[in-house]
Amino acid sequence: MAQEITLSLADAEALSHRVLSNNGFNQAHAEAITRSVLAAQRDECHSHGLYRLIGCVQTARYRGLDPDAEPQVIDQAPSVVKVDARRGSSLLAFERGLPHLVEKASRSGMAALAINNGFHFSALWQEVEALSEQGLAGIAMTPSHAYVAPAGGRSPLFGTNPFAFSWPRPGKTPYTFDFATSVVARGEIELHQRAGKALPAGWAIDREGNPTTDPQAALDGALLPFGGYKGSALSTMIELLAGPLIGDLLGHETQAATPDGKGQPHHGELILAFSLEAFLGSDKARHQQHAETLFEAILDQGARLPSQRRFEARERSRAHGVIIPQTLYDELTALASPA
Amino acid sequence: MAQEITLSLADAEALSHRVLSNNGFNQAHAEAITRSVLAAQRDECHSHGLYRLIGCVQTARYRGLDPDAEPQVIDQAPSVVKVDARRGSSLLAFERGLPHLVEKASRSGMAALAINNGFHFSALWQEVEALSEQGLAGIAMTPSHAYVAPAGGRSPLFGTNPFAFSWPRPGKTPYTFDFATSVVARGEIELHQRAGKALPAGWAIDREGNPTTDPQAALDGALLPFGGYKGSALSTMIELLAGPLIGDLLGHETQAATPDGKGQPHHGELILAFSLEAFLGSDKARHQQHAETLFEAILDQGARLPSQRRFEARERSRAHGVIIPQTLYDELTALASPA
Predict the structure, then answer these.
(1) Would the CB atoms of A244 and B291 count as touching at under 8 Å?
(2) Which UniProt keywords apply (chains A, B) (predicted)?
(3) How much is the ipTM here?
């Protein structure tokens, strides 16, 4: 068993802030990124938690993101706000755009926030839950580096293109889902490789486009979209709406930053907000109750609602703090210390 | 080989119109329904073609829809138009709402058309393509009668809940997809039953919630969502957005009309429109070209774009007319004749 360390949420927050400040991130970016990695760590989404600080610092060192970028808010149309992240983290751009998105959706019934030119590493559930916390329903989507072949295709073209949705539940944790449109995350293939295990059928194809269960052949080839041609279609929609529609890149045009300062790690993200108030007026409370009957019917069948494990983890972390590997703690502590 | 008959598009149109007029549908409804079944027949979507007229007439006879309903347009919010179909066909409601949706999306950047209380039988691709014909991107979704169990569940709760998207391609047929969020349509199960064939694994569960390949056990049980828990989540989103958000029913609250005049065949539909013009301004042409590079990359891999077969059929039908079974032609001719 690897050694672990428990941190209070306050200590984890302070550590994250020191790591970022010590590596050139300005106050506003350090706070936005810390809020995100802390929320993920609190919900035990380890892959989006404190661990991601290492990638943020590395990308900044590779000049793949600007840790001092000031996002520019553009009032594009009555129901559209754009925020140019200017090669900074998408998280600060989201925070700057959020009040405008909420205001526009509340007034118009629905609205879009388009983030451009952002470095994106976080989970989309955070952004749709920022909407459901304010009583709005939300959808978020973003393309990412190309690892996924289209259904019927042979080579990487789509990103793993996550899609997230949240619906507010009065007095309860929201109904939230957030899934990649690939069968699995690329990290799952790497875990199988490290464990020397074959992949389940249907996850990936090799470089020639043939089905493979060999992790290395899959990494050299491509992941497959979930749900066959339907998932592939959904992934195409995400490329179009969070790419060309908002004037930004397609998944296959992005590239992780490399030590020589190359790569194209910036892309777009689209967040849609729906105002229950504006759609329903005085029927709002009745139809929020109506929606509850669907959740109850799902649970009555013994099925789960998505994100329940995450909400249970949230309660645990609030009471007892977060647990991370000692090695990660040591690495972060080193990054937090002046060289 | 069953006997078939070829009809010119004009003759098919006239036949549809006679069937509807002879069965109490007013001029406006007869035209809207005829446009829809003719477009489906033209694209060789037989299950949404002329065949559907029989169901429309039957439902009207069962008092499950009002063939003389006048849709009521409600200007709900700057980016939301609602149309109450008043128990009439959703198709006339869509046509009445469309100009408002286009106007709102063009002004605001994006907008929603919510159809309430409509009898819905048509394919969603028609409605998103009505948007892409006008240069807008569109999404449409609707819940339907409950045949689908949630992932991890045991019994029908969700409709087959279709989801459609269209993106305008200058000078070309649009990029359009339209899929059910069940693994297959319920009709596929019925076809296997009639042919005495077992179902592929993963399509359905029996009444006890166990996987089944027996068509009758599947019909007594439930279909499964496509793509496991991800498809199930998407289907839940469709229930919420095209149900409670627009003040309308969930899939499990709807029921087909029955001969005794019972049933609840009316429900909601949500159509979203995105204005490329408003999102992109003077960059519109450049980013429409940019989107084309994605379609080209898909085709270059040997993968297909969705709807290509449909567009090929469209060309054939325009040149040579449509082909339907003689038995269907005879049945429609009988419905078109005064009793």
Answers:
(1) yes
(2) Oxidoreductase
(3) 0.97
Bridge partners (DSSP) listed for residue A205: A211, A222
- From first to last of its 339 residues, what are the pLDDT tens digits of chain B? 579 999 999 999 999 999 999 999 999 999 999 999 999 999 999 889 999 999 999 999 999 999 999 999 999 999 999 999 999 999 999 999 999 999 999 999 999 999 999 999 999 999 999 999 999 999 999 999 889 999 999 999 999 999 999 999 999 999 999 999 999 988 889 889 988 999 999 999 999 999 999 999 999 999 999 999 999 999 999 999 999 999 999 999 998 899 998 888 999 999 999 999 999 999 999 999 999 999 999 999 999 999 999 999 999 999 999 999 999 999 999 999 987
Surface-to-core class of residue A256, CB atoms within 10 Å of its CB (0-12 exposed, 13-18 middle, 19+ buried):
middle
SS3 letters across A250-317 = CHHHCECCCCCCCCECEEEEEEEEEEHHHHHHHHHHHHHHHHHHHHHHHHHCCCCCCCHHHHHHHHHH
- Give the residue among A42, A49, A41 at the shortest CA–CA distance from A317: A42
Supply the DSSP symbol for A117: E
Task: Measure the CA–CA gap between B304 and B175, rounded to whole angstroms.
Answer: 11
Asked, for residue A195, whether it belongs to a domain, the answer is no
Task: Tell me if A245 and B288 make a contact (CB, 8 A cut-off).
Answer: no
A12-19: Cβ within 8 A, 24+ apart: A12/A38, A12/A41, A12/A50, A12/A321, A12/A322, A12/A324, A13/A38, A15/A50, A15/A329, A15/A332, A15/A333, A15/A336, A16/A50, A16/A53, A16/A332, A18/A336, A19/A53, A19/A57, A19/A332, A19/A335, A19/A336
Residue B21 near chain A (CB below 8 Å): no
Residues 276-305 of chain A whose Cβ lies under 8 A from any Cβ of chain B: 276, 278-280, 283, 287-288, 290-291, 293-294, 297-298, 301-304
> Has residue B317 been placed in a domain?
no
Say how many domains are in chain B: 1
Asked whether the beta carbons of residue B79 and residue A111 sit closer than 8 angstroms, the reply is yes
CA distances for B152 relative to A12, B201, B211, B233, angstroms: 36, 16, 11, 12
Of B85, B131, B95, nearest to B110 (Cα)?
Answer: B131
d(CA A298, CA B155): 9
Three-state secondary structure call for residue A215: helix
Nearest CA in chain B to A297: B157
Q: Is B36 inside any structural domain?
A: no
Q: Is residue B261 part of a domain?
A: yes
Q: What residues 214-273 of chain A have any CB closer than 8 A to a CB of chain B?
A: 226-234, 236-237, 239-241, 243-247, 250, 252, 272
Q: What is the DSSP letter of A210?
A: -
Q: Which amino acid is at B6?
A: T
Kindly report the CATH number assigned to the domain that includes residue A107. 3.30.1370.60
Q: How far is CA A40 from the centre of its chain?
A: 10
Q: Does B172 touch chain A (CB under 8 A)?
A: no
Query: Which residue, chain included where needed, has tokens 């289907």?
Result: B235
Helix (H, G, I), strand (E, B) or coil at B246: helix
